[in-house]
Amino acid sequence: MTSFENGGKVTARIVETLGRAIVAGEYADRPLPIEADISEQFKASRSVTREAVKMLTAKGLIASRPRLGTSVAPERDWNFLDPDVLRWLLSRGLSLDLLAEFTAFRCAIEPQAASLAIRRNDPAAIARIGKAAERMTTRGMSQEDALQADIDFHVAILLASGNRFMIQCRDLVETALRFSIRLTNRQKGVATADSDAHRVIANAIAAGDAERAVSASRDLLNEAAALIEQARRAG
Q: pTM of the full predicted structure?
């Protein structure tokens, strides 16, 4: 392993450890360690530590001000579109409010992505949507494999849209769906998602029926939103 590769792994470990701790509130009433202390804790060079601090700053978790040093940024300034930040937020305790907001975000983009996929009409991209939907019907799959097929389906629609902003959301969507799908399946009392509902969307996209694709996508997302709201009310 080269020193560059090793440095990259240490940087990632610092970011993961400190990022998770910040989001969990471990520095709510105490200061962040200074760079020298971080370097000592992780046996890292100062350059590696500085890179980790820059990455945490880019995620909106910490702020550095002249003569005031580095401190945890207010939660309102955190980058919720960063997959790591979202993962840490959901891992600190499943936030139904956050999942509800995420589902509302999906409602704003996924039906439109389905419509754009039809307009763009990329055969390979549309075929990937169909294959993901087909995989969801495979019998004997583990719950983890079924979950991945479900995630792949939704990501495939974003990719098929050809919209660069929507495509940039794929890691965010995949991260949150790992929590959201498990919750909604549990609320419905099923082990895996409704493959038929996903197949309706895939078939509509393949047939070029934008109205049907958008409507079916909205129906699926509205059901997810209702299940999350049900969980919120149950406490």
A: 0.83
